[in-house]
């Protein structure tokens, strides 16, 4: 796994969790746990699957409005 990939994953993960800060506490906790579980499940994904995973999350993030 390249350093660029790791950096991209961490940046995306941080941006998603930052967006959750504005949610009510119960929804924030639920969203944070969902994201943590999803990223953990894909930690050992192959390169093609990992790229699709990141693209999908980046697309979801961009549909939420301005980037965090």
From TrEMBL:
Pfam families hit by this protein: Complex1_LYR_2
Organism whose genome encodes this protein: Muntiacus muntjak (Barking deer)
Lineage: Eukaryota, Metazoa, Chordata, Craniata, Vertebrata
Keyword set, alphabetical order: Chaperone, Mitochondrion, Transit peptide
Domain of life, per lineage: Eukaryota
A cellular component term, taken from the record's GO annotations: mitochondrial matrix
Function of the protein: Plays an essential role in the assembly of succinate dehydrogenase (SDH), an enzyme complex (also referred to as respiratory complex II) that is a component of both the tricarboxylic acid (TCA) cycle and the mitochondrial electron transport chain, and which couples the oxidation of succinate to fumarate with the reduction of ubiquinone (coenzyme Q) to ubiquinol. Promotes maturation of the iron-sulfur protein subunit of the SDH catalytic dimer, protecting it from the deleterious effects of oxidants. May act together with SDHAF1.
Record's keyword annotation contains Mitochondrion: yes
CDD domains registered for this protein in UniProt: Complex1_LYR_SDHAF3_LYRM10
UniProt-recorded name of the protein: Succinate dehydrogenase assembly factor 3
Subcellular location(s) of the protein: Mitochondrion matrix
Subunit-structure text: Interacts with the iron-sulfur protein subunit within the SDH catalytic dimer.
A GO biological process held by the record: succinate metabolic process
UniProt keyword Chaperone present: yes
Similarity comment text for this entry: Belongs to the complex I LYR family. SDHAF3 subfamily.
């Amino acid at each position: 796994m390249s350093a660029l990939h790791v950096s991209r994953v961490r940046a995306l993960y941080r941006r998603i969790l930052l967006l959750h800060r504005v949610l009510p506490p119960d929804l924030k906790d639920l969203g944070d746990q969902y994201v943590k579980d999803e990223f953990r499940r894909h930690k050992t994904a192959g390169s093609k699957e990992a790229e699709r995973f990141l693209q999908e999350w980046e697309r979801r993030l961009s549909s939420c409005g301005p980037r965090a």
